[in-house]
Amino acid sequence: MSALDPSAPPEYLVGHLEDALARDPRLCEQGLHVHIPKPGVVEVTGTLTSAERKQAVARVVTELLPGALLRDRTTVADYPEDGSAEALAPEVR
Amino acid sequence: MIRVAAVADIHLGADSAGSYRPRLARLADHADLFLIAGDLTKRGTAQEAALVADELRGLPIPVVAVLGNHDYESDAEALMATALAGAGVDVLDGGSARYDIRGCTVGVAGAKGFGGGFPGCSGSEFGEPEMKAFMRHAADSADALGEAMDRVRDADVRIALTHYAPVAATLEGEHCGIYPFLGCYLLAEAIDRGAATLAVHGHAHGGSPEGETPGGIPVRNVAAPVIRRSYRVFELDDGRLAGR
């Protein structure tokens, strides 16, 4: 994907950045959200599967909007094992 | 000043044959150009193609249309375009048309458009081939609209005509969960790049009549259930929607 026009309306920049984050083979993350609070600033939120992908967020944004300030609000998933069960069966009397 | 009449989603079928033409009796008194933003028929059959062509044949002002999703339902869209052309309707599918109205050049760029959604809730060409094809069709239709806009860039008045919506604002009233099936932001991007004077669409029967693109181009949803009349008239003055 080629670089975006930084002077384009922020709605279009958000659409193309979210599309790139979903499609770029370094990421393939469809649950990320982009917000442009002011010109030249890109805020990305959401949960990533690995720390490597956090670096890829920066690369993709920089490639598409060189010079933009990235506020990376993403978190890397850390899901602990938890064997506690939800009881769905009717209570036994 | 020129006056443009527009409607969409008239959904004519055998059960409504002959019902629309009488509602165009004074069209030439009200407008210089008539736009139809898709879904002229109920199921897009060959019979409906002939019926709608008869309803529109020989109108006293130029008529330009795009087809909508209903017009594709019976895989007879090419036949429908031919029937409409035979009735004097300019049918656009990624094309453009120009009209000289009292010395003012009006350029119309038309494409059906497609779904895909809007920033924050849009699809991507990722995953299953069906999803890729869905979003590729959305992008192709927006590209075609953009190229058509380029061809009318030198016109005094430039109108973008689509069936699907370019912005979410004219969908308000519909359930937000179906927005990605009602329009796509890529259409708005093409409209802004082409510096349109006005963008007209249909498809969203429960939507809102007015909105604008991020670039400030007025967008009007002319779906018949929204405008609740046989067409809505817009006055375009000095390359702008009058009153703006």
Structure summarized in a few sentences:
By secondary structure, chain A is of the alpha+beta class.
Alpha carbon gap, first and last residue of chain A: 63 Å
The CATH architecture of chain B can be named as: 4-Layer Sandwich
Which bin fits the share of residues in helices of chain B?
25-40%
Which spans of chain A of ≥5 residues are poorly predicted at pLDDT below 50?
A: none
Structural Rg of chain B: 17 Å
Q: Which class best fits the helix and strand makeup of chain A? A: alpha+beta
Q: Could you give the order of strands across the largest sheet of chain B? A: 4-3-2-1-13-14
**What structural category characterises the helix and strand content of chain B?**
alpha/beta
Number of domains of chain B: 1
Strand content of chain B: 25-35%
Task: Please give the largest β-sheet of chain A.
Answer: 3 strands, mixed
User: Can you tell me the CATH class of chain A?
Assistant: Alpha Beta
State the end-to-end CA separation of chain B: 14 Å
Oligomer: heterodimer
CATH architecture of chain A: 2-Layer Sandwich
Strand tally of chain A, please? 3
- What is the name of the CATH topology of chain A? Histidine-containing Protein, Chain: A
Strand-and-helix sequence of chain A, N→C? HEEHE
Features:
heterodimer; A: 93 residues; Histidine-containing Protein, Chain: A; three-stranded mixed sheet; 2 helices; 30% helix; elongated; B: 244 residues; alpha/beta; Purple Acid Phosphatase, chain A, domain 2; six-stranded mixed sheet; 6 helices
